[in-house]
Amino acid sequence: MTDTPRPDTRNPDPDTGGPSTGDTAFARRSTAETWRILEILRKETVGGFLLVGAAVLALIAANTPLRDRYEDISHTVVGYAPWHLDLSIAHWAADGLLAIFFFLVGLELKREIVAGELRSLRTAMVPVTAAVGGVVVPALIYLAVNHDGPGAHGWAVPTATDIAFAVAVLAVVGSRLPAALRLFLLTLAVVDDLIAIVIIAVVYTGELSWSPLLLALIPLAVYAFLAHRYADRFARSRWAAWAILLPLGIATWVLVHASGIHATIAGVLLGFAVPVHRGAYRRDDDGLAGQFEHRFRPLSTGIAVPVFAFFSAGVTVGGFDSIRTAVTDPVAIGIAAGLLLGKPIGIMGATWLTTRLTRSRLDPSVRWSDLFGVSILAGIGFTVSLLVAELSFDQTGGELALDHAKIAILTASTLAAILAGVVLYVVGRLQKPAPAR
Predict the structure, then answer these.
(1) What are phi and psi of 78, to 5 degrees?
(2) For a surface tag, which of 79, 157, 186, 378 has the fewest beta carbons within 10 Å of its beta carbon?
(3) pTM of this structure
(4) How many CB atoms lie within 10 A of CB 414?
(5) Low-confidence ranges of the chain (pLDDT < 70)
(6) Are 169 and 377 in contact (CB under 8 A)?
(7) How far apart are CA 185 and CA 371, in angstroms?
(8) 368-377 vs 343-357: helix axis angle to the nearest 10?
């Protein structure tokens, strides 16, 4: 069987009337690339379950007699004050550990642009426009609810998608779904993360200090030069990467943090500086970006993200009056509506418009009903939504609004997981298998 895409006879070319010669989004890839994607999804599935477990433990700790101990640990300050590193443990989890997660985002983004779905403008058009739609519509819904209220600055909270949580749900109920649909979700999440990175860097940067930011370019440039020049050595030797590149990465992180830009952006820049093709010392090996992904993903999915979730998701729910206050807060309503309604409307609408107005086409194995289930699944905000909520409300002193935002994120993400699970399960059971390519 060949990997050459077949003409899409179901969507005739508007100019010639014959089979479409437009690009098929998420078409069949090489065997090596397919295995790489499946391996990523497998690891993200494990990470998703760990993430959910950490969030459950946090809720238990925040709503039991363990609450005081939990809050004491969260607010314990450690670090070197002269370098502006005297942070609480909860902030270390958000600014420090989560930088590992964003480092992997940078790696995956680089690989998608260089060798993946985003390398071609036409094949990238569907996931990019779907992701943009999945960001713009939730933000507009949130602003429609909060346009004249004190919580309007939290518009970016419902724009994120948590790939680990989403893939965990997909693994449970989506075994009958085509691989192209999983690729759609993965690429959508990568573009979604890119948009979130831009939002965090532009919208949530307060007072910018140019001196440390410019100084950060020095270790970053040395890191990029060494990663490209000695990619083979770093791919073969783990200790060389730890001993040489890690200190440069830490220096970049410290200086970016001191500049006022959220320190997770340093993780993205470091990941994007790693070469994709260099460092493959055997024909069937990944380049240095792939090697680093294999090394750091267990650290991210097994430690960094669950620890962040544990310290971020611990919200004291309280009694009936507290719950009523939370669910009637425009902040919570806007977030829940953005995730549960905005995400599927934005993704489905943008995808439909793209396939109608351009020559881009979905892979024949992907049905619109499958895509609808995945668009609901994208409403699982969780990790990045929690981070953006803290940046939106914690810095402005809105502690009550922050708690309500977290409750909305956790509730809406859970409902999105359940609804998407039901839709994908029913679709997988009722529909006949798609025609083989």
Answers:
(1) -135, 155
(2) 79
(3) 0.80
(4) 15
(5) 1-45, 174-176, 279-286, 318-321, 395-398, 431-437
(6) yes
(7) 9
(8) 140
